[in-house]
Amino acid sequence: MKHYPAEFKADVVALYRSRPGATIKSVASDLGVNTETLRNWIRAADGRRSGSHSASTTAATSGGDGVQAELAAARKRIRELEEERDILRKGARYFATETRW
After folding, report:
1. 67 with 57: CB under 8 angstroms?
2. Domain of 73?
3. In terms of domains, do 55 and 68 share one?
4. How far is Cα 5 from Cα 96, in angstroms, rounded to an integer?
5. Number of separate domains in the chain
6. What is the spatial distance between Cα 39 and Cα 9, in angstroms, rounded to a whole number?
7. By percentage, how much of the chain surpasses pLDDT 70?
8. pLDDT class for 51, splitting at 50, 70, 90?
9. What's the confidence (pLDDT) of residue 3?
10. 87 and 55, same domain (yes or no)
11. What is the pLDDT of residue 38?
12. pTM for this structure?
């Protein structure tokens, strides 16, 4: 049984949530993680988020435009990183098939 760092788990859950049309199965297979493992991580993250929901809502309403601008910049950066990752994956697949001759 593999043990994953907490940061990795949080990143995978964030990746799943950032893809509106993605399924747990597709994200899990892309990253080489068991589907049920990812599902458990998402459930655990939902449990943590429900307790801190009121605090984050208060911070977002009091911060206003600064928080929204920071959130938009973070989402843009996430999209760029996902695009770079996808390009690298395609390249790796290409070279993996080239070496199987």
Report:
1. no
2. 64-101
3. no
4. 27
5. 2
6. 11
7. 82
8. low
9. 84
10. no
11. 94
12. 0.47
